[in-house]
Specification:
- It is a single chain.
- The protein is of the alpha/beta class.
- The protein has one domain (about 15-190, about 230-255): Rossmann fold, CATH 3.40.50.720.
- It contains seven helices and seven strands.
- It has helices at about 25-35, 65-80, 105-130, 155-175, 190-205, 210-220, 230-240; strands at about 15-20, 40-45, 55-60, 85, 135-140, 180-185, 255.
- Strands 3-2-1-4-5-6-7 form a seven-stranded parallel beta sheet, sandwiched between helices.
- The chain is globular.
Length: about 260
Amino acid sequence: MEQQFSFNDELQGKIALVTGGTKGAGKAIADRLSQAGATVIITARNQPEEANKRLYFISADLSTAEGTQKVVSEVLNRFSKLDILVNNLGGSETPGGGFKALTDQDWINTFQANLLAPVRLDRGFAPGMIERGTGVIIHIASIQGKLPLYDATLPYAAAKAGLINYSKSLSNEISPKGVRVLTVSPGWIMTTAANRMMERIAESSNTSVEQAAQSVMDALGGIPIGRPAKPEEVAELVGFLVSPRAGYLTGTEYVIDGGTIPTI
């Protein structure tokens, strides 16, 4: 029997935006914040597979400057403010095979989605948070920022390392003005996107999907807890960090990886 939580409407009256909020961890985070009483906006290029009247959807390609500006404008025009920004959008669509298999465009596309999208959204929403003296910005990074998988996701790992560094720097600048900035770095999360990545690795290396998954596990050094994370487990951490219960937390990276990273 799963444990039940009471969120007590702790985010009542808050406006939250979750990027990449239609699938995987993003969907779980959006649902978690909505359960806590927030009005939740989600963005993605494509419509959610399942309609949810509690979530306000904006279709946008956040890998472009035009897409991020569309989201900033629509949120502020419709809701007048934003209290919580969860920069969850991210992923890797580059081929396996190491550095020689990667083109300039592979690097550019990966950095646009994983680093520049959150930078642009922060630039759009943080000034309003600073003006009101309150707000929370979450950057969803990855343990690959410290534990890169060179054969499969080198640009993604580099982009997430940049995001972690940027997040800390942003926190130092705007936390004194009332806006908390935090980084969440998950390990392997069992999502549809993760399954697709295994298929790409298998195709490029001429192996099975199971062998590709095992190669990722081996490259990570194993997961001591014995399994990938569930999207809901990442969402629960984010739900706590954006809540008033975490009011003294800022400028910190929270790793949720089942013990994958082998150092302290």
